[in-house]
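Quarterly update from the structural biology core.
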Amino acid sequence: MAQGSAGASLSAAPPVANHVDRFFELSLLGLLASGFLAVAGSGYLDLPTIVLTSAALVIRALLVAGLIRFELPPMVVTLITVAYIAFYPIDNFYVSR
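Predicted structure, tokenized:
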């Protein structure tokens, strides 16, 4: 039996799954945003942290909504991760204390 269009349709995610994924991503984003707004409203964060985090949340909301597209290649993500692992002890002992 030859695989026709039925075999190809099994590999693609059904449209309902995409809606569920988007719902959960938006729910998680709302949870993070409400927690961030609570901490930002308390006065414990400095202005650069508030601005950078707000920008990151807005960009993530635009990504989830599908208004912008941005994807880093896996090699770039790996390099950034390794660089942060190397930077973490420096930050922990000398920058943040």
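The chain has one domain: 16-95.
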